[in-house]
Amino acid sequence: MPRFKLIPEKPNVNFIGRRVIFFIFSALLIASSIGMFSAKGLNYGIDFTGGIMIEIKTTEPNQISLLRERLSGLELGSIELQEFGAPDDILIRIQRQDGSEEAQQQAVTSAKEAMGNIVAEYRRTELVGPKVSDELFMNGIYAVVSAMLAILVYIWFRFEWQFGLGAVIALLHDVISTIGIFALLGLEFNLATVAAVLTIAGYSINDTVVVFDRVRENMRKYKVKPMDELLNDSANETLSRTVVTSLTTLIALLALYMLGGSVIRDFSFAMIWGVLIGTYSSVCLAVPSLMYLGVIRRSADDDNEVEQTSA
Amino acid sequence: MIRVSKWKVYSILAVCLLGIMFAMPNIMSQSTSDSLPEWLPSKQISLGLDLRGGSHLLLEVKVDVVIAERLEALVDSIRTELRKEGIAYSNLGSSGHIARVTIKNPNDIEKAYSLINPIDSGFITATSDNGLVTVTMSEQALSQRRISAVEQSIEIVRRRIDETGVREPTIVRQGEERILVQLPGIDDPERVKRLLGKTAKLTFHLVAPNSSDAILSGRVPPGTRLLPSVTNVPGQQNKYLIKKRVMVSGDTLIDATPGFDSRNNEPVVNFRFDSAGAKRFGDVTVKNVGNPFAIVLDGKVISAPVIREPILGGAGQISGNFSTEEAKDLSLLLRAGALPAPLTVLEERSVGPGLGADSIASGKVASIVGLMFVIVFMALYYGRFGLMADAALIMNIILIIGALSALQATLTLPGIAGIVLTIGMAVDANVLIFERIREEIKNGRTVISAIESGYARAITTIIDANVTTLIAALLLYQFGSGPVRGFAVTLAVGIATSMFTAIWLTRLIVIAWLRRTRPQTLEI
């Protein structure tokens, strides 16, 4: 059987010793993400802004300028046209119309009339009115915030609060930097992106929990080992697993990114980014942060009980 | 030797077998699955509209219109009652949920109260010393109105959509005043939206005499109303002065069909009244031969033909420069009945069959390629144990498909992404176990004890790690909508099945292998 090793038998990477570098890097990443977000803002999809999105197949390729000409006469405000995966596949975004819900409806009808015979097939028509977009936006925020809180509570419940705090620091880092990369690249931020962010949160915590679990186990096993050494050993002992799981997940997501079609490309991208940043933050951020959060070691009395329950 | 109780082995195998049985119909043709015996599961995964193509419409019932109408009727009744009794009043009108009137003579207040109070039991009447009488709709009456308006609307929407011949539509109430309509296979719902956009309230009114003066001057005599014509043809009359009183209303119609006028072959709508409606229609036409009779739909006059002779049979004809299509739509609307209140489209998402099919195809390719690469990687990295994890992974996919089919959960495009993500993450549990076994062997344990403690020690970590992802999935389901919910469902199902296959199934495989070969050393 052919075999290979990605990670040496006994890895010994000095994560804790380089913690200052990691902290500075992450601080810069977060600062620039927030900067990006406030300077450039997010390219919100119609889920959150309201408006109209129509994807069409045209009868002949390269019809963008003709379409633009026909649509611009309608006075529907800002209209974006974009080739979507193929020269005869065009994505049209029409801004949310002023006025009532009926105004949105009217805009779709007149846009469809204006495009007329250029359209071979309506692939997608999405219309989100002002009421629904406001609700979707609020729901997105509720979902992310409550997921963070629920995860914090779960970790707190399973570990001590210091671990919970460390995990949430890493989590916030991942979420903020994901928003930053979306702002930087101008990728569309929509409902699916929120789903991706939450999945990233779950994944990142997953990684963090595995390492923390080992930290806890080692804290019971080695009562006198210095904390930095103990944390470093824990990260190294689980490094092989961390790398392998990240790799298999990345393999699957890359397949989705490249072969899954244009509709979910941004969604796959967000998750690929999330796996990378989530892996980094678990090992290089969450673990070293325990140095400063005042983790309390158990006394030797718990030994027997510990031996039975440790994992 | 590690012992596993018999019942445990059987139940693990039973779960796998059930998964295969439920997943099977998805790879069969329709005819094969139809020919299966009754007791075998035959349901395929139900695809979301984004994959099968179709239209999703979120409608809102404008309930305030119903309440405003009722208030207006109340104001009319108050006017009639007060006039009948000769009570002087001023400032009669309504705003919001309240109608008001000021009684000029304080001595009349008692009497006015006793007249107004019994008009509508859903209202609370109050008087004050300065002669102001207010009539407020009670909270209970308000909410009852709302509920019944939405329920009635759902019924009418269902009837209209059924008439268009859409197969398997979903029409459900959402929240307080909303209706969710899902129409599989409809990629351009313009006709449906047009049909749902009309309340289709049909009424017959007498046309007021000498109406041309009022139309020109714009001064409308009491008891009449100036209404526009549906068709705005230059040179033709485009406004009508009609008497407010409804002579016959469309809710007494029992049938309406499109047809052609026998004289000029123009498209028309033929209708028939029920016995009460027929009697009233007969009475009106007997008394008004030679006068024009206006047919009003949603506040617009379709036409106002002159009554040539009494119509006693309860059947009639509406003409009004219709196209064939318009005549068909109007008769459909009349058959289905009027909506109690107008509907607005809040959200529309339509996917054409082409994009849906493309999404399924690319989703399949991405899943298979992703699966292949993960399988190869695991085999290369963990050798024999990797192959065992691979077997568990394939079983995991089968279980996901089986569970989705059995639960009849909706698979969406993000849902497919959830499956692909699960393919990548599912091996994590096995990776945790294998890495643990590796460590235990390095620590000098025997093969069997290393395997045993590898499984035992990895389990709590696996559970902790998966619960957090499960939390994220549950919240996504709670706050997400449509396709995103589909993602949450596959993610949650995938987590559950992957824990089962990674922990129990691989363990069974590992034990079977140990029993057969009894290895003294372990390479992992």
How far is the first residue's CA from the last residue's CA of chain A?
A: 31 Å
- In the CATH scheme, the class of the largest domain in chain B would be Mainly Alpha
Bin the helical content of chain A. 55-70%
For CATH, the homologous superfamily of the largest domain in chain B is named as: Multidrug efflux transporter AcrB transmembrane domain
Structural class of chain A: alpha+beta
Tally of discrete structural domains of chain A:
2
Q: What is the molecular shape of chain B? A: elongated
The total count of helices of chain B amounts to: 15
Q: Main interface pair?
A: A-B, 81 and 82 residues
Assign the CATH architecture of the largest domain in chain A.
Up-down Bundle
CATH topology (fold) name of the largest domain in chain B: Multidrug efflux transporter AcrB transmembrane fold
Looking across the biggest beta sheet of chain B, what order are the strands in?
7-8-2-18
Rg for CA atoms of chain B: 35 Å
The low-confidence parts of chain B are: none
Shape of chain A: elongated
Description:
- The complex is a heterodimer of chains A (311) and B (524).
- Chain A has two domains: 19-44 and 133-309, Multidrug efflux transporter AcrB transmembrane fold; 51-128, Alpha-Beta Plaits (2-Layer Sandwich).
- Helices cover 64% and strands 11% of the residues of chain A.
- Chain A has helices spanning 19-39, 46-49, 64-72, 101-115, 130-158, 161-185, 191-221, 227-237, 239-259, 265-289, 303-309; strands at residues 43-44, 51-58, 79-83, 89-95, 119-128, 188-189.
- Chain A has a four-stranded antiparallel β-sheet with strand order 3-4-2-5. A two-stranded parallel ribbon of chain A has the order 1-6.
- In chain A, a hairpin with a 5-residue loop joins strand 3 (79-83) and strand 4 (89-95).
- Chain B has 524 residues and is α+β, with helices and mostly antiparallel strands.
- Chain B folds into three domains: 6-50 and 353-517, Multidrug efflux transporter AcrB transmembrane domain (Multidrug efflux transporter AcrB transmembrane fold), CATH 1.20.1640.10; 64-142, Eukaryotic phosphomannomutase, cap domain (Hypothetical Protein, Haloacid Dehalogenase-like Hydrolase, Chain: A, domain 2, 2-Layer Sandwich), CATH 3.30.1240.20; 197-347, Gyrase A, domain 2.
- Helix content of chain B is 53%, strand content 19%.
- Chain B has helices spanning 6-23, 30-34, 49-52, 63-85, 109-116, 139-164, 190-196, 211-217, 275-287, 324-336, 353-382, 384-407, 413-442, 447-479, 483-517, and strands at residues 46-47, 54-61, 89-95, 98-103, 123-127, 132-137, 170-174, 178-184, 202-206, 224-228, 239-243, 248-249, 253-260, 267-273, 293-297, 300-303, 315-318, 343-351, 410-411.
- In chain B, the strands form six sheets. Chain B has a four-stranded antiparallel β-sheet with strand order 7-8-2-18. Chain B has a four-stranded antiparallel β-sheet with strand order 3-4-6-5. A four-stranded antiparallel β-sheet of chain B has the order 12-9-15-16.
- The longest helix of chain B has 35 residues, at 483-517.
- The model of chain B has no long low-confidence stretch (mean pLDDT 86).
- At the A-B interface, helix 4, strand 5, helix 5, helix 7 and helix 9 of A face strand 18, helix 11, helix 13, helix 14 and helix 15 of B.
- Strand 5 of chain A pairs antiparallel with strand 18 (343-351) of chain B, so a sheet runs across the interface.
